[in-house]
Design goal:
Elements lengths: L10 E4 L3 E2 L7 H16 L5 E2 L2 H4 L9 H8 L3 E10 L2 E10 L5 E10 L3 H15 L18 H14 L4 H17 L4 H16 L5 H18 L4 H14 L3 H14 L5 H12 L5 H14 L4 H13 L3 H14 L4 H13 L3 H15 L3 H13 L3 H14 L7 H10 L3 H14 L20 H10 L11
Parallel strand pairs: 1-3, 1-4, 2-4
Antiparallel strand pairs: 4-5, 5-6
Helix pairs in contact: 1-4, 1-5, 5-6, 5-7, 6-7, 7-8, 7-9, 8-9, 9-10, 9-11, 10-11, 11-12, 11-13, 12-13, 13-14, 13-15, 14-15, 15-16, 16-17, 17-18, 17-19, 19-20
Length: 474
Amino acid sequence: MLAPTDPRPKAIAVLPFLNLSSDNENEYFSDGLTEEIIHALGKVKGMSVVARTSVFQFKGRAYDIRKLGEQLNVQTVLEGSVRKAGERLRITAQLINVLDGYHLWSETYERKMEDVFAVQEEISNAIVNALKPFCQEEPAVVRRASENLEAYHLFLKGRFHNRKRTEDGLKRAIEFFHQATEIDPNHAAAYAGLAESFSLLAHKGLFWPREVMPKARTAALKAIALDGQVSEAHMALGFVKSVYEWKWEKAECHYQQALQVASYGNAEAHHWYSSDYLAPLGRLDEALEQMLHAQFVDPLSHLINSSLGFVLIMRREYDQTIDHYRKCLELDPSYYHFYTGLGRAYAQKGMLAKALEHFLKGKELSGHLPYITGIIAHCHAMMGRFSRAEKLLAELLLLARQRYIPSTTLALVYSGLNNRDEAFRWLERAFAERECSLVYLNVYPTYDNLRQDPRFHDLVHRIGFPSAPPVRLA
């Protein structure tokens, strides 16, 4: 995989705290404690903290501490466990030097649940003291999402389900975040969680954008009104402003604000700024720079590595894209996005048989997502297998009567079948719905065969893209 070559500063990985409670339902709490410590340490100047997505790759897995240090490029690792019994907590934590495996510090905390915030602060302070020569300031006081413990637990449950990034997970996250705001109407982080969850339902093509994006905007604005330092709220609002409202200047303001207030370990701010603002506008050098920074902070993130390949495709760097995705598959051969990304690169190089092979594997691993069916149909059409493409198209049209299917997916198939009138009819429907993927119209190579049509230029003009570098045609 691509990666920056700058040496990493004194770095730490906070591994997922083990849930030793008798109730597996308490896993949300141990995961939440891990994230809170990552966030607190990420605010310390001079300390480099690996983002949550990469460290959570090791959850529930046996590992060699030295190999883990090499893989994450860190010198120290924090391990811990949580045992919750009623309102009592027993939290253990140990800081380990990956070079020799020796403990730099360890502690056990026996507290009441109401003291959980104080414990988070004590652990963060203890780590900074152990690494004092490398830290330029004391850790910030842990920002308390809510003083209400019931609301705090509901928030942690919402975040736990939000991280699953599935339709069911996002729906459950919305339920928990909403309950948290009902108990504590001043819970800014819960409103930010609502905004992100609603946004992801649209981003993943699971719900009509007009149904969920206004809810995302309302929740993000509420979060910012309560606390302008919540980076996730600015990210969500930047996303709404860019891919839904097409208000590009306002979108950049919120993305920049998210970057300014985010902790070091928050790679997502750099990721979304790259993927959903810079790349659609054709600012591909900046997009690559931001995505590489996100990968540097969160090197094992499936989402970030997948999106890095996406940026490379938009840059028409297909050989580099293929090399990147091959290395991604060496790390995890079960993630469907790596296969579909590799397939897209092969398709752009005219290697359609290899592209189809990877698309089919990606569809199988994804649970048969409809948009991948559209990619496969387009590939068949490009191979001259029009009857197969039309059969898959008919299946998608039938499915669209039962659930939301992105109009851009259907436009892609018609484009492959050289039916430009139908392709533009579905693109117009995507425009009316303000589908998220439409913002890549000006940069994504799949649309190259439509670029000379006056209807294409009219559509681009109506989306209102600012001036951008010209697209480099393959």
